[in-house]
Design brief:
This protein is 46% helix and 11% strand. It is an alpha+beta fold and 243 residues long.
Length: 243
């Protein structure tokens, strides 16, 4: 929208209109009675953009009616596509025997990039519940498994990471398959459920979906070992593997 001139900001009447790139997020937010952080999220693509917000912005920047309606339609389409998204060969896989080497490399890079978020200065709070089978099943040789378990033990020392192991004898638990509930600090950004697949990834939105997955996660946490006992189990498995 750089080619359009915005309306004068409050307190700037009579002055020459500023180009968009001369305005800060706080200035735009003040003009629209929004928070500056909301404008920043819209600019960086880190928050949802509603068609109504697009309408307000386009009127603020005095775009043509045709362009305003076109961009509102894009916002509506983006909202529809957010229910699912295909990632192709960059998707994470539980088994790569059917994948060509270059696709396996891409999948590994995606996994490593996701793991790096845990050690970032602004790391999100993460709470994991994993099956005991994931702790005991050898992936590669025993030495590689030991290194992986050591990584887990190191990761849970971070205040933002909590891990529980769901033991074999936990009894009946929700059968959901792997899933992630993504929560955001701003109430304007609703929680989303993410489910991983072999060829695609599904995003479930809406209060009913999120509520049911949160309920399932709470049941899994209640059935799992405490974080302390989970670490004891992992240490025990590591000792067994060195015998």
């Amino acid at each position: 929208m750089d080619e359009y001139l915005p309306s004068p900001l409050p307190g700037h009447q009579g002055r020459k209109s500023l180009q968009k790139d001369s305005l800060t997020c706080a200035q735009v937010g003040a003009a629209l009675d929004w928070s500056g952080s909301k404008v920043n999220r819209m600019e960086t693509g880190s928050g949802r953009v509603q068609p109504s917000d697009v309408d307000v912005l386009c009127r603020f920047y005095e775009t043509t009616d045709e362009l305003r309606e076109f961009r509102k339609s894009l916002a509506r389409q983006a909202k529809t596509r957010s229910w699912w998204q295909v990632h192709g060969s960059g998707e994470l896989h539980t088994c790569g025997s059917y994948m060509p080497p270059e696709d396996i490399d891409r999948a590994v890079r995606v996994r490593l990039e996701r793991q790096s978020m845990i050690s970032a200065p602004d790391a999100p709070d993460c709470w994991f519940v994993v099956s005991e089978g994931a702790v005991r099943r050898d992936m590669g040789d025993r030495e590689l498994m030991r290194v992986q378990l050591e990584y887990v033990l190191d990761a849970v020392q971070r205040p933002s990471v909590t891990l529980q192991v769901l033991p074999f004898d936990a009894g009946t638990c929700p059968t959901t398959g792997p899933f992630t509930v993504l929560g955001f600090p701003d109430p304007e950004d609703p929680d989303v459920v993410y489910r991983d697949g072999i060829t695609d990834a599904m995003y479930l939105e809406g209060e009913p979906h999120v509520r049911e997955y949160n309920r399932a996660f709470d049941e899994l946490r209640a059935a799992a070992l405490s974080p302390r006992r989970s670490m004891q189990l992992i240490n025990s498995v590591m000792k067994e593997s060195t015998r």
